[in-house]
Write a structure and sequence with these properties.
This protein is about 45% helix and about 20% strand. It is built from 10 helices and 9 strands. The protein has an 8-stranded mixed barrel, surrounded by 5 helices. α3 runs parallel beside α4. Bound molecules: ligand C2E and magnesium ion (3 copies). The site of ligand C2E has 24 residues, from β2, α2, β4 and β6.
Length: about 270
């Protein structure tokens, strides 16, 4: 039995998916060594004419519950890869990060599907990073075979929101990740709370000892940006750098950002 409120949402989501009315925005990530654009993360958006803006935290779990997540993933990959090619064709070089629901990884053929997208759009696999979050329904450790196939192909795997939710050290020990994303909760707190700072410092150290790169998410202030650089974090992402933006705005943002970096942080 689906509740009426969920049914309305589901109906709207299905229509948006079928009629190509979902939308992607892209949030830049920078290298903390020199401030340059490293990668962009594609984030899905849904503006419904009746329901208004529905956040991904509501409709992604909905899509997962009702068997629509694979279709959303395929739509999103096609859209994001096409955008990446357009940047590439205009001389704007960056990698692409894409959030993948753990449920989509149950299909053993999924890594080949992703390779097909890379080939179709001329993207080297090393330019792609898939961001994964552990969920209660599909623990990542059950997906070892699929994850290994991605790494063999040279595609990066990041563990998202590390330190909160279901993520555990067991995953770092067992799974072939290439990157660890420190959850924004710890990043936000690190400038004001010595315990959070100690946790961030230790996560960065842990990442490096495991040969993973570390990304700080949710960097909202200059102070946090400087701290993440000082702590040796590799990559940063957050509102202080850029909000998620429309694909065609990336080049303009990059021009402005590259001029401001040297004034923003000290070495
Ligand atoms: P996430 O992958 O951890 O994405 C980061 C979220 O933090 C995004 O929210 C982003 O807009 C937000 N954010 C970025 N910088 C800042 C900051 O400085 N401060 C604060 N307070 N927030 C910041 P968003 O776009 O609402 O996405 C929420 C979650 O929904 C994502 O978390 C991801 O798990 C999921 N999601 C988004 N797009 C997709 C998608 O295409 N597919 C799948 N499967 N999941 C997606
Ligand atoms: Mg993510
Ligand atoms: Mg995250
Ligand atoms: Mg998140």
């Amino acid at each position: 039995m689906i509740e009426p409120a969920e049914l309305g949402l589901l109906d709207g989501f299905e229509r948006a998916l079928i009629n190509d009315r979902l939308h992607l925005v892209y949030q830049p990530k920078i290298s903390l060594s020199d401030g340059t654009l490293k990668r962009v993360e594609a984030l899905v958006r849904w503006e419904d004419p009746d329901l208004g803006t529905v956040p991904p935290s509501r409709f992604v779990p909905l899509a997962e519950r009702h068997g629509l997540i694979d279709e959303m993933t395929r739509w999103g990959m096609d859209t994001a890869f096409r955008q990446w090619k357009s940047w590439h064709d205009h001389g704007l070089e960056c990698e692409l990060a894409f959030n993948i629901s753990a449920l989509s990884l149950r299909a053993l053929a999924f890594p080949d599907l992703v390779s097909d997208y890379c080939e179709r759009y001329g993207m080297p696999p090393s330019c792609l990073v898939l961001e994964l979050t552990e969920s209660a329904t599909q623990p990542l450790v059950t997906l070892m075979d699929t994850l290994t196939r991605f790494r063999i192909k040279g595609i990066g795997l990041a563990i998202d929101d590390f330190g909160t939710g279901y993520s555990s050290l067991m995953q770092l020990r067992q799974l072939p990740f290439s990157e660890l994303k420190i959850d924004q909760f710890f990043v936000a707190d690190a400038c004001y709370n010595k315990d959070s700072r100690a946790i961030v410092e230790s996560i960065i150290d842990l990442a490096h000892k495991l040969d993973l790169s570390a990304t700080a998410e949710g960097v909202e202030s200059q102070e946090q940006l400087q701290l993440m650089k000082d702590l040796g974090c590799d990559i940063a992402q957050g509102y202080r750098i850029a909000r998620p933006l429309e694909g065609e705005k990336l080049a303009d943002w990059n021009k402005i950002w590259s001029k401001s970096w040297s004034e923003l942080v000290s070495n």
